[in-house]
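Quick one:
INPUT:
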């Protein structure tokens, strides 16, 4: 009874602090574990390396499957299959609504004119663009859609204008548009400075992209749709020959080029620049990039960069590459050879080309000339392929809207508005399911599928790494094999008193050592008679802070671990699901360890590790009591809050809102004891009591239906 009271006092009284209790341990104590083991010195990269091994295995399966495809007939069937896969991953695309194009200004130059325009790719979702038209132009001309890379200025960037103006001088009509989050389409612009509150283009993409992922939507869908609707506008113009459409762009523009050309049959010729490589080399080198460059479940469905080109075979395609690009040239060469075999089987080997120059991630005169030559030939146009000197237009000359930002000039919807609308539709669907039946019978399987949780095997063998003695208890250091090829280090605080002790798993996202000092919270628990196991899960403590820059992606409003999170989403997994498996592995250890009562396993999780504990408890019934402190109250909060805390994305599951929320997980734990203490909203603020209770109402109803109302508690006082 005393231990129960102590446990509840800890749960309700002393865990509300966000800041960690200062460690008061003796200086001679070193509670780290893996630094002394040479084979585990790279543990900080465990999360990334675990995902990379998963990806490598899936890519190997893809390679084996592709090697069995032989002959033109078989390849035509494979091309159809690839297109269907891409459409399933990215679609369904919205219906075509009126573009409502408006010309907001015209700029006349000696050899061309520029029409500055906006159109609506979705109702109220404005796209700023500039149509460059050769002057004079007597008959409909071939046209090129130009996709901007990750420049703040969009197509106004001087290197991009070099390409645009050269194409125009050669007689092509060019439509250049601002991608979302760039140019005049900043989604988080500060009205005082005109700059993004979030950061540069990749930050704008990833910040909104993470929200769209929660809805089960790849952020690329919105960017591709902008491009498809831009082609809709192009073909509506009398100056354009709709049978001769090309698309090109560099870097992020190369990404968009590959996507649009794969999914829009009107694109006759495509020239993606400084993007195409393959996932094997990408993941071995710089790692996955910002939101639109990762399809939700893309790798789990076997989609590689080559598939973006195979999907359009045998239409003319030019890969433009540089040997010192951070997008691996080795991967580009391997992809070219793979795609070349497809084109050869179809009798069109001459229609897949690759040009490379010895340069970094940049446009070069040699590569530009190859691009002009490619479009002149395949869009059936006469002209000179020389890279001509041009006089770039100033940003002021190319300004489209009065304020320089579409949202402040024209209003309309932001990408957040669109994602929120989609999220609210999913919320209504989930609430309807809850009304019809509190817990759908398929929910546990949905949790497993979406989180990517995989049950670990039998109890792992523990490696004992040393002990410190303190008055009344010992601090033991261990590690066990994780569910993958990594180890889980943990501390075990064990009372000196004889007998079997009830265990508590203690989870802190700041690491196992934070609350392990003399006078710390874990000492309070162990002095109450508990054995305390404090692990570092994947991405935490000794298993966190890796070399991949995506693990510390800087945003102006905080830090988000976006790119590793996107990596997991590519594989149909989540960091939450991986951490849940680590927790279950710790339970396996406790079940076999002498001096521990396995019938009375409890767990406490702070802040971002709360969702991981709830997921683990769904699959591990041996966790009999669960306390979560300072946890996000609802995943929907992340999609319905414009300026959310990026750190909370790490604790979210891609695609989760298509099936469940955290309250539904809580329902699955009935009738076990569950304490939810001081849940927070997506902006990091503590929820008021009435709001917290409303969010978890479905869990309360489930507990009441099972006669266990007293086992479910929400507390919001925290003091």
């Amino acid at each position: 009874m005393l231990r129960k009271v102590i446990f509840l006092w800890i749960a309700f009284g002393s865990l509300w602090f966000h800041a960690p209790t200062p460690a008061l341990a003796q200086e001679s104590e070193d509670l780290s574990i893996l630094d002394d083991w040479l084979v585990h010195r790279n543990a900080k990269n465990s999360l990334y390396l675990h995902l990379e091994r998963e990806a490598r295995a899936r890519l190997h399966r893809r390679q084996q499957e592709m090697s069995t495809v032989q002959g033109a007939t078989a390849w035509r069937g494979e091309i159809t299959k690839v297109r269907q896969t891409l459409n399933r991953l990215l679609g369904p695309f919205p219906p075509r609504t009126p573009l409502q194009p408006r010309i907001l200004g015209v700029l006349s130059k000696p050899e061309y004119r520029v029409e500055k325009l906006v159109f609506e790719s979705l109702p109220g979702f404005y796209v700023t663009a500039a149509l460059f038209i050769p002057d004079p132009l007597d008959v409909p001309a071939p046209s090129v859609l130009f996709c901007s890379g990750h420049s703040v200025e969009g197509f106004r960037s001087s290197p991009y204008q070099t390409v645009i103006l050269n194409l125009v001088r050669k007689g092509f009509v060019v439509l250049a548009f601002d991608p979302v989050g760039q140019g005049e389409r900043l989604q988080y612009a500060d009205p005082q400075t005109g700059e993004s509150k979030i950061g540069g283009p990749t930050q704008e993409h990833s910040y909104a992209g993470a929200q769209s992922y929660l809805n089960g939507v790849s952020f690329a869908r919105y960017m591709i749709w902008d491009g498809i609707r831009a082609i809709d506008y192009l073909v509506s113009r009398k100056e354009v020959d709709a049978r001769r459409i090309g698309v090109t762009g560099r870097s992020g523009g190369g990404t968009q080029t590959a996507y649009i050309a794969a999914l829009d049959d009107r694109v006759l010729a495509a020239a993606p620049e400084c993007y195409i490589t393959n996932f094997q080399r990408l993941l071995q080198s710089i790692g996955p990039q910002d939101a639109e460059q990762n399809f939700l479940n893309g790798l789990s469905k076997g989609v590689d960069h080559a598939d973006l080109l195979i999907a359009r075979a045998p239409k003319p395609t030019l890969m433009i590459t540089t040997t010192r690009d951070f997008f691996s040239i080795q991967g580009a060469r391997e992809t070219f050879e793979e795609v070349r075999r497809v084109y050869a089987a179809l009798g069109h080997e001459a229609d897949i080309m690759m040009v490379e120059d010895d340069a970094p991630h940049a446009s070069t005169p040699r590569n530009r000339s190859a691009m002009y030559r490619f479009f002149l030939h395949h869009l059936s146009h006469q002209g000179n392929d020389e890279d001509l000197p041009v006089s770039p237009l100033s940003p002021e000359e190319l300004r489209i809207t009065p304020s320089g930002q579409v949202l402040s000039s024209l209003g309309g919807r932001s990408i957040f508005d669109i994602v929120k609308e989609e999220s609210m539709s999913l919320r209504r669907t989930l609430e309807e399911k809850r009304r019809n039946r509190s817990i759908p019978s398929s929910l546990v399987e949905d949790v497993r599928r979406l989180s990517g949780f995989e049950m670990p095997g039998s109890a792992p063998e523990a490696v004992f790494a040393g002990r410190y003695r303190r008055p009344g208890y010992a601090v033991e250091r261990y590690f066990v094999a994780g569910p993958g090829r990594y180890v889980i280090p943990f501390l075990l605080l064990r009372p000196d008193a004889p007998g079997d002790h009830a265990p508590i798993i203690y989870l802190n996202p700041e690491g196992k050592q934070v609350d392990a000092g003399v006078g710390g919270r874990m000492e309070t628990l162990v002095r109450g008679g508990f054995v305390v196991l404090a692990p570092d899960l994947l991405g935490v403590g000794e298993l966190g802070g890796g070399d991949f820059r995506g693990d510390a992606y800087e945003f102006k409003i905080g830090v988000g671990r976006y790119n590793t999170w996107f990596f997991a989403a590519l594989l149909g997994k989540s960091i939450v699901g991986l951490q849940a498996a680590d927790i279950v592995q710790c339970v396996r250890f406790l079940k076999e360890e002498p001096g521990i009562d396995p019938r009375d396993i409890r767990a406490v999780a702070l802040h971002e590790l709360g969702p991981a504990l709830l997921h683990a408890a769904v699959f591990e019934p041996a966790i009999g009591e669960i306390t979560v402190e300072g946890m996000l109250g609802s995943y929907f909060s992340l999609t319905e809050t414009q300026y959310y805390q990026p750190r909370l994305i790490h604790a979210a599951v891609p695609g989760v809102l298509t099936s469940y929320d955290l309250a539904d997980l809580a329902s699955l734990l009935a009738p076990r004891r569950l304490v939810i203490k001081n849940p927070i909203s997506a902006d990091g603020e503590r929820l008021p009591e009435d709001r917290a209770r409303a969010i978890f109402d479905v869990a309360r109803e489930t507990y009441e239906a099972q006669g266990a109302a007293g086992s479910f508690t929400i507390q919001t006082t925290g003091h």
